[in-house]
Design brief:
The protein has 179 residues and is mainly alpha-helical. Helices cover 75% and strands 0% of the residues. It is built from nine helices and no strands. α2 runs antiparallel to α4 and α2 packs antiparallel against α9. The longest helix has 28 residues.
């Protein structure tokens, strides 16, 4: 059985390699889609009374599924970036540069942290409702390491008003750089 902390670092490595292959321009859009997913979850849970009532009256696993579905959909569409001819012709977004691969590697690792960390946070908040996933065991070196990572996962610091700032900066970046 593999620890969630080890799995976390494995996914960060996988996403970093994907980011190096795709390049920074496409990876930054994935980062923004994760921000938008967490923003959507925040808005749905705090400002839509029907969703608040529904989640309060159903088992906690419903909240995990809803959050995971919203985040996964946003990430899926973030990875399905269109091949925009204007971006392909622009020398700033050329994919054959070493800098593009390195920045893509870093952004990909950050995306892995955001995506897997958010899913892990959702399960941790629900006290690991799936039988397949065992919570980290306190008192063991690996369990203590995994439990020590939980306060640093993205949904812990991407809360109101921080998520609003992240979304605003994301949109400004898209308007300035991509349009």
């Amino acid at each position: 059985m593999v620890s969630l902390g080890v799995l976390f670092w494995i996914f960060i490595g996988i996403f970093a390699l994907i980011g190096a292959i795709r390049g920074w321009a496409k990876e930054i859009l994935v980062t923004f889609s994760v921000f938008m997913g967490i923003f959507s979850i925040n808005i749905l849970e705090e400002h839509v009374p029907a969703v608040e009532t529904y989640l309060a009256s159903n088992p906690v696993i419903t909240k995990v599924w809803m959050r995971s579905l919203v985040l996964t959909l946003m990430v899926f569409f973030g990875y399905q970036t269109p091949n925009i001819p204007r971006i392909a012709r622009d020398e700033r977004f050329a994919r054959d540069r070493l800098q593009d691969a390195l920045l893509g590697f870093i952004l990909g690792a950050f995306n892995g942290y955001l995506i897997f960390g958010s899913l892990w946070h959702f399960m941790h908040e629900a006290n690991y409702p799936f039988a397949l996933i065992v919570p980290p065991i306190a008192g063991t070196p690996i369990g203590d390491s995994a439990l020590g990572m939980i306060p640093f996962l993205a949904p812990n610091w991407l809360i109101s008003p921080m998520i609003f700032y992240a979304v605003a900066i994301s949109f400004i970046f898209v308007l300035v750089v991509f349009i």
